[in-house]
User: What shape does this take?
Amino acid sequence: MKLQKITNDKVKKDYLLIEGFLDMDSTYFIKEINKGIEEKNNNNFKTNIKGYMTSWKYFTNNKKFLKALLPLFDYLDTLPNIQPYQLGDSWGLKQGFSNFTQDHDHSPNYLAAVIYLNEHKQMLIFPEIKKTFKPKKNSFILFSSFLIHKTTRNLTDKDKYAISININHQH
Assistant: This one.
């Protein structure tokens, strides 16, 4: 083998990132997450979320969740470059003291989002685009699925609750 040249660089890529608030009954969803993390099919400490997690599709058919999410989908439908999509996975998470989320992305999904159910100090970090978000009750961040993100460790005794979703290309 004869190597001629090795290039290791980054390519700029267009991405979507939307911040906002949804009309959510956060108390209801926190109770649901606490139920889901106790079920046998939970994903506690099994994924990039090093904390408590429901099954992947825990909220996907929950009408109360869908009613809260549909205004965001209605907005997406008005954007000129949005490709046809459908809701994929939607799971709840709880991060207590020392819990965190490892660097990851949501590829090959089209879009991803996180909806926070309570205020918290544990930051969501997007290293590639140098953006950081502090969870606020009922706030959301929707983003292109290829964006790498993570959280720092939860250094408080307060639990952080959120719902994450994957949005797939519609076939």
In short: The longest strand covers residues 85-95.
